[in-house]
Design a protein that fits this description.
heterodimer, A: 62 residues, alpha+beta, B: 374 residues, alpha/beta, six-stranded mixed sheet, three-stranded parallel sheet, 12 helices, 33% helix, 18% strand, elongated
Chain lengths: 62, 374
C-alpha cells in the first residue's frame, strides 16, 4: 500500500481551503445585494439637516 | 443639492428666562419660519416664557413643535401635537419627541406647577406601533441628554433615526444603537449636522447613513440677507433695552459722591454688617437672577444699590459690585457719611420706596424692622 506522507494534513488543509473559498463566494454574493438593490432603485435618498439646543442664540458668542 | 431635504431641531430652541432673551427669541422664531423647519422637539427651555408664548410662536410663525410626554395637569392633555408626519422624497417620516422627566420646567409665568412629564419609555412603547401605521420611517427627537437617550433607545423598538437633544456632544461618526442611527449636532447654533439617508422603500428602514457635522464658524460664509436682518434686529434690541432703562433714569444724587460698598461699612460697623449678611437684603440680586430678572430695570432699581443714583449700580465694572440691598441703598453715599444721626431717619423713610404696595403688600415697618434690626 502506497502511503503518501502527510496525506491527512493535506486533506485537512484542502477541507479548510474549500470552506474558506465557499465563505468568500457567499460574502461576495451578499455584498452585491445592496448594489443590486441600489441599481434596482429600492431605496430613497433624503438629506436630513439637524441641530439642537440653539438656546435663543442669533449669532456666535464672542 | 437636488435631493429632498428635511430640517429638524432637537429642542431648547428658546433662550434663557429674561425679557431681553424673550424679545430675541421672538425674532429667532420669525427667522426660523423662513428656514423651512419640518419638526422641532420640545426642550424644557422652550417653556421658559410660558405655554401661551410657545403656542403664540407656533401659531404666528408656523413652527412645527411636537411632544408626546408633556401634559398639563389641569387639563390632562398633551401641550403639543403628539407626533408629526412629513412626507419627503417619497418617504413618510414620523417625528416624535420626548422630554426627560428629571428636567424641571420653570417659566416666567404662573404656569410652573401645571406640567407633568410622563415616562418616555412607556409613552414610546405605546406610540411607536401606532405611528408606524402612518409613517414609513420613525425619527425620535429625544430631549433626554446623552446617557438617557441611549437607555431609552435600548428599551424600545422601532426607532429608525434618533436626533439627540439636551447635549453638548456632536456625533462626528456614524453611530447605530438598537438599529437606530444616532445623530447629534449641538449647541447654540455652533454646529450643524447633515445626514445623507438611504431608506429602504419597502420597509422605511435606514439602509445606510453618512453623517457629517460642520462647525458654523468664520469658514462658513454668512447669508447676507439674513445677516442684515440680524444686524437690524440687534439695533432694535438695544433700543428696547434703552427704553426700559429710560423709565428708571439715573437722576438722583451727585457725580461728586461715591458708594463705597458694604465691605467698607463692615470695617467700622461689624455688628450691623453681621445682621445685614444674614438678611434677605444680601440675597436680593440672587433672587432676581434665579428668576431671570437680573436685566430688568424695574427689578434692579430695588434689588441693587443706587440704581437710579449717579455712580450707583451698573452692569459694567466697577459698579457691578453694588448688587443687593447694601447698607448705602438705605443710608446713602458712603462718602457723605453723616454722623449726626440723620442717616437713621433717612434709612427708615427709604423702606417704603421699595417695599411698596405692589411689591410688598404685607409690609409693616415694625415687624420687618425686627428682621434687620441693627
Amino acid at each position: 500500500m502506497l502511503r503518501i506522507k502527510g496525506l491527512t494534513r493535506i486533506l485537512r488543509s484542502s477541507w479548510v481551503l474549500a470552506v474558506v473559498a465557499l465563505l468568500v463566494v457567499l460574502a461576495g454574493a451578499l455584498a452585491q445585494q445592496p448594489r443590486a438593490q441600489a441599481e434596482s432603485g429600492n431605496w430613497n435618498n433624503v438629506l436630513m439637516v439637524y441641530t439642537t439646543d440653539v438656546k435663543g442664540k442669533i449669532e456666535p458668542c464672542g | 443639492m437636488g435631493k429632498p431635504v428635511l430640517v429638524v431641531d432637537g429642542g431648547d430652541l428658546f433662550g434663557p428666562r429674561n425679557l431681553n432673551e424673550r424679545h430675541q427669541t421672538e425674532f429667532l422664531c420669525g427667522m426660523c419660519a423662513g428656514m423651512g423647519l419640518d419638526a422641532i422637539g420640545l426642550g424644557e427651555q422652550d417653556l421658559n416664557y410660558g405655554l401661551d408664548f410657545l403656542l403664540e410662536m407656533i401659531g404666528k410663525h408656523g413652527l412645527p413643535f411636537t411632544n408626546a410626554n408633556v401634559r398639563r395637569i389641569s387639563t390632562g392633555k398633551l401641550v403639543l401635537p403628539e407626533f408629526l408626519v412629513v412626507e419627503r422624497g417619497g418617504i413618510k417620516f414620523g417625528f416624535v419627541s420626548v422630554l426627560d422627566p428629571d428636567l424641571k420646567i420653570v417659566t416666567m409665568t404662573t404656569d410652573d406647577g401645571d406640567f407633568e412629564i410622563l415616562d418616555p419609555v412607556t409613552v414610546l412603547r405605546e406610540l411607536i406601533p401606532r405611528l408606524r401605521t402612518q409613517a414609513d420611517t420613525v425619527v425620535l427627537l429625544g430631549h433626554l441628554g446623552d446617557a438617557k437617550t441611549d437607555l431609552v433607545i435600548k428599551e424600545i423598538q422601532g426607532v429608525d433615526i434618533c436626533v439627540n437633544g439636551h447635549t453638548y456632544r456632536n456625533n462626528t461618526a456614524e453611530r447605530v444603537l438598537n438599529d437606530a442611527a444616532m445623530l447629534s449636532a449641538s449647541y447654540e447654533g455652533r454646529y450643524l449636522g447633515m445626514a445623507d439617508l438611504f431608506i429602504n422603500k419597502s420597509d422605511g428602514k435606514v439602509m445606510a447613513v453618512s453623517a457629517e457635522v460642520t462647525a458654523m464658524d468664520e469658514a462658513v460664509e454668512s447669508d447676507q440677507e439674513t445677516l442684515a436682518k440680524v444686524e437690524a434686529y440687534k439695533a432694535e434690541l438695544q433700543a428696547f433695552k434703552e427704553a426700559k432703562r429710560a423709565a428708571f433714569p439715573r437722576t438722583f444724587g451727585s457725580d461728586q459722591e461715591e458708594f463705597l460698598g458694604d465691605r467698607a461699612c463692615k470695617s467700622c460697623h461689624e455688628d450691623a454688617w453681621t445682621v445685614y449678611s444674614q438678611s434677605g437684603h444680601l440675597q436680593a440680586y440672587t433672587t432676581l437672577r434665579m428668576k431671570g430678572q437680573n436685566f430688568e430695570p424695574e427689578c434692579l432699581s430695588c434689588h441693587t444699590t443706587g440704581y437710579q443714583h449717579k455712580n450707583g449700580y451698573s452692569e459694567d465694572p466697577p459698579n457691578n459690585r453694588l448688587i443687593n440691598v447694601q447698607c448705602e441703598a438705605c443710608h446713602g453715599y458712603g462718602t457723605e457719611h453723616a454722623r449726626d444721626g440723620k442717616w437713621v431717619t433717612q434709612a427708615r423713610e427709604s423702606c417704603v420706596i421699595c417695599h411698596d404696595q405692589k411689591n410688598s403688600p404685607n409690609f409693616d415697618y415694625a415687624s420687618y424692622w425686627e428682621k434687620i434690626k441693627h
